[in-house]
Amino acid sequence: xxxxxxxxxxxxxxxxxxxxxxxxxxxxxxxxxxxxxxxxxxxxxxxxxxxxxxxxxxxxxxxxxxxxxxxxxxxxxxxxxxxxxxxxxxxxxxxxxxxxxxxxxxxxxxxxxxxxxxxxxxxxxxxxxxxxxxxxxxxxxxxxxxxxxxxxxxxxxxxxxxxxxxxxxxxxxxxxxxxxxxxxxxxxxxxxxxxxxxxxxxxxxxxxxxxxxxxxxxxxxxxxxxxxxxxxxxxxxxxxxxxxxxxxxxxxxxxxxxxxxxxxxxxxxxxxxxxxxxxxxxxxxxxxxxxxxxxxxxxxxxxxxxxxxxxxxxxxxxxxxxxxxxxxxxxxxxxxxxxxxxxxxxxxxxxxxxxxxxxxxxxxxxxxxxxxxxxxxxxxxxxxxxxxxxxxxxxxxxxxxxxxxxxxxxxxxxxxxxxxxxxxxxxxxxxxxxxxxxxxxxxxxxxxxxxxxxxxxxxxxxxxxxxxxxxxxxxxxxxxxxxxxxxxxxxxxxxx
Length: 496
Hints:
The chain has about 500 residues and is of the alpha+beta class. Among the domains are: about 105-160, no CATH class; about 345-495, Histidine kinase-like ATPase, C-terminal domain (Heat Shock Protein 90, 2-Layer Sandwich). The protein has 11 helices and 15 strands. Strands 10-12-13-15-14 form a 5-stranded mixed sheet.
């Protein structure tokens, strides 16, 4: 198994592990959120039951309050009737007198038709000004009861309710205040809206005016709550009912989004870390690459000089010139390779040359050194297409792509070199009739370690990409690949 395949396998393992971790985090956080949601709904349910009981108490107290008010008014009316009886000529006034005397709880003021005080009952106030103030106040509380005596004399009875009545009144108000306060506060931070039905009037809510306004008004808030949860009905009185609308708390909503936020934060952190480590690793690899290349160039220098001397010695000894010429070509090729290695890591110097000549020259050298069953063809739009190249490095790219094509065809087939221009670009396509590249590998063919051979480091295409994109500011890609062959495309600017 080569380095590239191992890396791909480890990538799949790491991706599967990451998906498993993400799944566990989402499942665990979801289970916690569901538990919190269940507890919140249970709290709202218990709270609504408590509110219902308090509403029942308020209703009972209110009914008792109204009943007491009615009873006290009847007592006043009975007192008035007894007073009338006292004006009549009766044999026995004891019953009427007992009724009048038994009124020890309800304060009364008897006035004439012009509201001038005549007498009082159960009051310690006696001065006229104070009585007039009480009359004005009581007139607002209860309508006066009019008495007509013999001779059409009109008198009025003004009264206020008893101390017991006001105690009950205050207790009822305290219950209503407590009821509203509990409604707003005792909801475990769950947003609540309490509406009177069927009028739709707002009784209480723990949402601020700003929150209600931002969410489109109370109706929009209620509609949203109604979608999330079924409202709880509360009987306020015999005539009135209310409905409690509620939704998930802010804490629960935050809990639902927390794992996503956490995973995003971790993902961003890992991406930054990966980018930094990749940058440092690439820099280290470049240093190693450059060091090895320069050391290789240095090591090749000595035997090359020696070989050149040996050729000259053989020439002096009369060895056949054809053989020496071919040996000289190979030595020059080695010298070119040495020059290429020495340029790695250095700034490549570009010169304006005819790309068609460079391609033909590079292919011409290889043509005599590969299988005779490999046929080379050229399709040049023009024979004079100039661009800026570093010839030794660019020839290296052509050689690598050509050797890969020969290997893919297993030494039998056709390789075509097509050069044309479009706008400011020169397009070089190298097409072979080999077995092609798998579609799953197209995006990774230029990565270090990719190779289909049993032997080799898988650096040829990676090196070609680096030469084209970094040194020539161009582009290299696989245009198409199938079982019938592969086309590599190189794009070069006419002027850099």
